[in-house]
Amino acid sequence: KAALDVFTEEPPSPESKVVQHPNVTVTPHLGASTKEAQEGVAVEIAEAVVGALKGELSATAVNAPMVPPEVLCELAPYVNLAEKLGRLGVQLVGGGKGIQSVKVVYKSCRDPDDLDTRLLRAMITKGIIEPISDARINLVNADFTAKQKGLRISEERVVVESQCSGDEPPIESIQVQISNVKSKFASAQDDDNNGGSISIEGKVKYGVPHLTRLGSFSVDVSLEGNLILCRQVDQPGMIGQVGNILGESNVNVSFMSVGRIGKRTNAIMAIGVDEEPDKDTLKRIGQVSAIEEFVFLDL
Predict the structure, then answer these.
(1) What angle is formed at CA 93 by the lines to CA 175 and CA 279, rounded to 5 degrees?
(2) What angle do CA 53, 140, 154 make, to 5 degrees?
(3) Which residues form the ACT domain (predicted)?
(4) Looking at residue 285, what is its pLDDT?
(5) How many other CB atoms are found less than 10 A from the CB of residue 5?
(6) pLDDT 10s digits, 204-220
(7) Which of 31, 92, 104, 144, CA to CA, is 20 to 30 A from 21?
(8) CATH superfamily of this structure's domain 67-215
């Protein structure tokens, strides 16, 4: 038995053997022409447009690589993380010839062939390029725009089997390495034979993107709003000193994390703030004797 409503030639010839076959039921190809179907399509288009204007993902974008809806849904929490890491990375670059080479490392329990990262690569590209140009980046034009800008993005998928138990998220973490650049914040830079590289890593925790590593320092701070990074001598009272300066300027602290290599050596203090501190406030932070460097990042 078979039921058909689509034919190579429409309408099909009455003499067609398929039409005449006793075990075949044929119907007109008119399902999308009904009033109800047209109304449904109109609603779907309107919802897709509203979602796109809000910056949400779309599984029906014309000319975009085919990303199944289930993949879009699964990777949605990581889209914001990918873009935030790109924005953070480009703001850490200081002078020179700009960004030319970026390597993205995805750590996951999945087989590398079972992880579609095209969407995440596009969002990292968006985060890197949009803050420093007028280009609007999306899944359709990300690779083309990166090529135009001379930006090479490579990807690596690392399987973390030791952390797999059967109910893990699709991605454990995303690491972004920007090669051959100097950093405004030296602690984010790994010195190598290629002139140095900036290395940052993040995870999605409770549905929110977090920065979890900066250079060789482990941190844990939400990538929301704005971020102040300080490298200081690891000694008592540092949190209080910086917190008091921000409080006196009515700057609200939303998150704070300290990462260090060892006791009483160097530490990184990552502070999330709701408002952008004025120049005088940032100057006062830089004048704290134990702070060796700091940077403000707009995320």
Answers:
(1) 115
(2) 125
(3) 227-299
(4) 93
(5) 12
(6) 998 899 999 998 888 99
(7) 31
(8) D-3-phosphoglycerate dehydrogenase; domain 3 (3.30.1330.90)
